[in-house]
Amino acid sequence: MDALDVLLDGFDTSKHDPKEVEDFLITKLQCKDSYDAYFSSQPLPGSVVEDIAEIEAQISKLERELRSTLVESKEAISNVLCNEPVEPQLASMLAQIDQLWELENQEPARSTQDQYQDLFTSLEEPVEEPVDEPQEAEIDEFHAALEKLKSHASADNSSLNNNHNNLALVLTNWRSINELLELPTLTATCIKTGHYQEALLCHSHIRSLAEKFPTANIIRHIADSISHEITTTMLHGLVKMLQQNISANPMKKILMYLLSIPPFSNNPQVLIQVFMSMRHKFVCAEMDSFQITEMSNDTMRELLIKRKIEAFREHVYNALAIIKSQSEQFDLKTHESPKISIPLLQEPKKPAATNPLTLLFVETCCDALLSSLKPYKTSLSVSVCLQLVYCSFRLADCNPNYHHLFVNKISEAELFSTAELTTAMDKRRELANKYY
């Protein structure tokens, strides 16, 4: 059975010319080049479905155009909405309140000023309870809120007009007020992310505003919040950073930040004490990191001892150099340091101006170093003595009294004799004259 028989489905074609029937079917079946339309859900041309689809497409296009126009003009629309007068809105609110209370005496529409006066008069008048109707046992939240509104209006009736004006003023300057309220959060974020300079700028800005507007409670509250964040979180974080292994430039920046924060801003000498204390802890921790164990042989023991001395020399000298370079910020030039004379191995020396705080710092660091070397004084070589003397001469670049103190401490600890120390110092001077 061919396809033609299936299409005819038993139709008797004997009475018709088979050739004409076949031509007719071929013409009808092959009238289109493509048969995609047979499997498409598109509406027929000119039908209601097609009209609905076209209308919906036009509506969607208009909505997109409207959305684009609104987005492009959002600032103008916002300004129009924000700059609208407050009085019409208040009049609308009063009209709605009148409808909710269902006033018995309906009067013709009056001016906004008359409505304000009637509202204030009605709020001031006592509420008369009905005689015939029983009082409700419970009052819903809406009426309770209205009772509070009445009491507030009665208490502040004289300044109500000023409050309306203040509300309009707040709405007009809302963007600036919002930026001001975000200052505490911005300051905390700057501190957490390490932007300390920006945090100090926020602190300085709010302090200037507090001095300019001393009666503004909100500004005083924001200033107190930012000051608390600066003097607690930021101050503690910066002080802890002084105990870490950081180079000279970051350490100078930290000191400059701390000098801008109370109480260091009023008394820089206190910051010197804190700085020396934190660096002393760091120097001791660095020297203790080179721990000498029982398994260490003589070569390893001497190497670790020299590492301790080198750590002492590097970090103590850096701390002293930073204090000397920041003497103007620390107000050291205003307070002249006393002249102190420290003999060198019982030999008198000329007095030199020395800060007692830095001298105490050098002394405590020397004691920590020498106490760690005492258990191994029997195995200390001449090379170790020469390195100690070299370290002492390095401290002399900041102040000769540091050098005298260090050498005297070595002699008092009996690590080396006076003759050995004198020989090592002569060797150091010989090397300095040869290479420098």
Automatic annotation (TrEMBL):
InterPro entries: COG8. Keywords: Coiled coil, Golgi apparatus, Membrane, Protein transport, Transport. Belongs to the COG8 family. Residues 52-79 form a coiled coil. PANTHER family: CONSERVED OLIGOMERIC GOLGI COMPLEX COMPONENT 8, CONSERVED OLIGOMERIC GOLGI COMPLEX SUBUNIT 8. The keyword Transport applies. It comes from the Eukaryota. GO terms for biological process: cytoplasm to vacuole targeting by the Cvt pathway; intra-Golgi vesicle-mediated transport. This is Conserved oligomeric Golgi complex subunit 8. Transmembrane segments: none annotated. It is found in: Golgi apparatus membrane. GO terms for cellular component: Golgi membrane; Golgi transport complex. Its main location: Golgi. It is a peripheral membrane protein. It comes from Lachancea nothofagi CBS 11611.
